[in-house]
Amino acid sequence: MGRKLLLEHINVPGINTFDVYRQKGGYASVEKALKTMTPEAIVEEVKKSGLRGRGGAGFPTGMKWSFLAKPEGVERYLVCNADESEPGTFKDRYLMTYIPHLLIEGMIVASFALGAKTSYIYVRGEMMPQIRILERAIAEAKAKGFLGKNILGSGYDLELYVQPGGGAYICGEETALLESLEGKRGNPRIKPPFPAIAGLYGCPTVVNNVESIAAVVPIINDGGDEYAKIGIGRSTGTKLISAGGNVKKPGVYEIDLGLPVEEFLYSDEYCGGIANGKRLKAVVAGGSSVPILPANLFMKTINNEPRLMSYESLADGGFVSGTMMGSGGFIAYDEDQCIVRNTWNFTRFYHHESCGQCSPCREGTGWMEKVLHRLEHGHGKMSDMDLLVDVSKKIEGNTICPLGDAAAWPVASAIRHFRDEFEWHVTNGAEATTRNFGLAHYADPLTVAATA
Amino acid sequence: MKVTIDGIPVEVEPGTSILNAARQIGGDIVPPAMCYYSKLEGSGGKCRTCLVKVTKGSEKDPRPMPKLVASCRTGVMDGMEVQNITSPEVIEARKGVVEMLLINHPLDCPVCDQAGECHLQDLGFEHGAAKTRYEFDRRTFEKIDIGDKIQLHMTRCILCYRCVFTADQITNTRLHGILNRGDHSEISTYISKSVDNDFSGNVIDVCPVGALTDKTFRFKNRVWFTKPVDAHRDCDKCCGKVTLWYKGEDVIRVTGRKDVYGEVEEFICNTCRFDKKKTADWVIEGPRKISHKSVISSNHYEFTPLPVVKTNPVLLEANKEQFERDTRL
């Protein structure tokens, strides 16, 4: 049974209210931090914990905090990136919906550590329920003296705001998020300068994911060293995984990093295996932007070692035989799923969401989508696979922000591992158009509604 | 700060970008730039044609940069070493960018007023492939008049954002920008408004392709058949320093004076650009020196200077493989 640091009290009735959260020991880290610790000591604890950013990139959080420029007389900001929009990832939404005070508690501690007097939670615009939940929780916390002027008599002031986002995937990229927060079109900025030097309104800013900020609470409560004991190697602590696809028990799970993937996928504590007694075909381990892996490579590394749910183990073998932890959006595909259709679907998403600033991403994502569309609809050519690989190479690494990479990796990896299936679509075009991949097990909602 | 580009060292001021450092050396090691415009703040980094490889970050941190970087937006560090035309990776990436740019830019150079002055034309000639692999429908748009003297032909637009920065920075009204996302993006005015102010004509000069054209000049002549002459007048709105483009005895176009990289030296007002089309309106300074490497220089007065790298025997030897490949391209 894995430890529950973030989701320990998630099933307690009323945990979304201040009083119940407080009864369960909530806001203890704020008291500890503001009354007994200096900002530098908090940063040090986070560094000791080895916490890595849970938004996808996995950059060490403490190090990111220590990069923050601290010029005199200039505001500093903490921005929580709650623009969760990676297909397959839904952990932050879960956290905000059911235990919003955990995020607010983490925001207060992190803001204090960074010297921010104003902080923002940038929530994806479509998540109106979560925006309302957070607004209510902030009002409660403020009424109890945990936000506003002179928090707990410490002399520290903090205003926390919830900002609905523009509803674009690109606004989850930290610099596009800052542009959007400033009221502009959500286009990524060219780095450098990095937000730690010139972020929101040109001031030093740290942008952290919801889960990363929530993880600061147990780190401060128990100490960075205790947190670092959980996990394996440089993958410390617990991680929320949003499991979906053809698993028996889709949902959000908190795992100790280092858990074998086999245990995560097949044990009853987590996913419970593949639905309908099917076999596993492939897995996307960290959200739609990471490379897809066939079952055999996902279960074991190229050296025949068991694959673990950790940053290093998932990345073992590079993109040839490995993938990435990403945001923890775990999607399992059973043997009936069509990889071509899935890849087309992902690419359709990235084409739609490309901001259009830089040429390779703007034009390349559309090109890939059109080629995949014709492959999926039975009009593909044998040369299409090489074309797709080449176009994805031309996009990868040549764009302003990582959206180009996110669009290129799923395509390149799908062709690398499932080329046979793409070729089948070319040689069996007519059959490919009539196959009803992925829908066979699900009742048509209209039929259900009509017969109910 | 000392920076080395394609083996050629140059001393530059701190804060200089790699592109500008290369421009201080000059010649064929200068990366191309479709969206960067030194006179426009915040421009650059978007078209990705100026990607270069940083093989050594600096003296302090000699690690190479993991990805190619946009030279127009990356500052130099002391001891930095950069590869432009000597890196096959850069040339390959640039070819990719050109291919992407040409997906939605028609090769209608024979009827385009920008032909001969078009940066994409030059880039396509140097890096493009003879045949495209793109087989799908291209996006097309109706031509739009954005003001009585300027026509926007979005079909040719490569979304460099230069005109948006121009309208934003040198005029007092922001009336046009970008609509939509991704390859659905388009430059447009706010609802049905036109770009109407004293300096709006500069969006024509900054456009690297033929998307924004001067309606007083459209289809009047090919630019390489005209005679450019530097001239000035006393203007209460701008510097009044322009280039007049003659066809016979008639001034058929007035533009800002452009440097070797196609950037205007100073922005000019609409009165000078559109309304002063008589020789009597101007004090003639003399023939314009044309040094642009494009076809526009073919009928004019000076030869393009010989490339720096290709005349340097040490570099020739060091980069033999690159030059052989370059010749094949």
TrEMBL record, chain A:
Catalytic reaction equation(s): a quinone + NADH + 5 H(+)(in) = a quinol + NAD(+) + 4 H(+)(out)
Top enzyme class: translocase
GO molecular function, one term: quinone binding
Pfam families xrefs: Complex1_51K (PF01512), NADH_4Fe-4S (PF10589)
Domain NADH-ubiquinone oxidoreductase 51kDa subunit iron-sulphur binding: 340-385
EC identifiers of the protein: 7.1.1.-
Keywords tagged on the record: 4Fe-4S, Flavoprotein, FMN, Iron, Iron-sulfur, Metal-binding, NAD, Oxidoreductase, Quinone, Translocase
Keyword Iron-sulfur: yes
Keyword field contains Disulfide bond: no
Cofactors: FMN; [4Fe-4S] cluster
Function, in words: NDH-1 shuttles electrons from NADH, via FMN and iron-sulfur (Fe-S) centers, to quinones in the respiratory chain.
Family: Belongs to the complex I 51 kDa subunit family.
Protein name: NADH-quinone oxidoreductase subunit F
Native organism: Mucilaginibacter ginsenosidivorax
Gene field: nuoF
